[in-house]
Amino acid sequence: MKGWGTVVDANFVTWALLAIIALSLYQGVRRGASGSVKRLAFFLGEAALTVLAVALAAVAASELSPILQSWLGERSLSRPSPDSSGWSQFFYTATTGLRDLPLLRFAALFLIVYALVRLIVGWAARALLPKMREPASYGSPSGGLVSRTAGGALGAALGAGRALLVTAALFAYCALFSQGPLTDYIQQSGLYREVAAQIIRPAAGSVLEERLPVFAQAMSGELDQLWQKRYDVIDAELPDDIVQAALAVTKERDDDRAKARALYDWVGTRIAYDHDKVRAYEDLGEWREQNPETTFATRKGVCIDYARLYASMARAAGLDVRVVTGLGYDGRGGYGPHAWNEVYLNEEQNWIPLDSTWANAGDWFNPPGFADTHIRQGGATG
């Protein structure tokens, strides 16, 4: 496809963009020059206000984010019990998520500041300019032939602006979801391709096409972490048998590393991998959720069960621990869903990884190259 002469095709996106322009042109003819000028001015004012609000929100969110993180870090946020109210569990998850996840914190602050700016500016505009309101879209034709012709031209310009905004949104979608269900179809539109190539891409540079997918992927990872924090609530209650076992295993260990290692050895050798549970999930789509107490009692589980039991026992022994989810090397050149732990060693002031599920296949207590076989995908609790 070369130039603007061959942009019209049978693609729905093409016709939708053309329909936006045509409808705006029709409205411009009906409103006449005066009404179209007001409509165009209103559109441009709204666009300018949006840009201003976005800029202010971005700056404010950047400045407020470390302040909010520090403030939340000073608060005592204890895990609610598993039988606590839904509001208590939501509050804990939300506040710890805002404390620990920088992109989530920035996004929340951005949306709040953006909404406040729009609200304040809108209120000020209504107070200072009480007669200024968005002109009606429909009505009887206004003015004579010259007025309606000029109104049609202005309406077409307004429609082009609206179509440009829609194209920018589609461009952002294609950048975010390069393998999405509609991406190929959108990109088959000749009009979309021309507008994207001639206007959107030069104007946006690498922001939409390169940086937006990276930001979205990072945000997705943080949302995964937020989702995984549910284990902090679900497994907050430590049954007596798990507590007593953890204390017995670590009673002669003096430091965090020794305690963490003893628990790794215990979980790794006492729990058997539940192949039946894996087959039920792979063949029947049946997922058998189990808590640490079930894993402790049955001595069977899969990787997430190992990790949750280890986390419960480590907390019972006074350790700070995380459940991490991501991908684990399958030994055949590929990776599959996996879960493991990270534990904080106060003496060393460092988080170290460990994988009790793989304990029977080698020493996976903070070995060199752990990250080569374990790919974190954002899920981490604790």
Characterization of the model:
The two termini are 54 Å apart. The chain has 2 domains: 221 residues, no CATH class; 143 residues, C8orf32 fold, CATH 3.10.620.30. The strands form 2 sheets. Strands 5-4-3-6 form a 4-stranded antiparallel sheet. The chain has a two-stranded parallel ribbon with strand order 1-2. The chain is of the alpha+beta class and 382 residues long. About 1% of the residues have low confidence. The chain has 14 helices and 6 strands. It is 64% helix and 10% strand. This is Colicin V production protein.
- SSE topology string: HHHHHHHHHHEHHEHEEEHE
Helix content: 55-70%
Uncertain stretches of 5 or more adjacent residues: 136-140
Q: What Rg is obtained from the alpha carbons, in whole angstroms?
A: 29 Å
What is the overall number of helices?
14
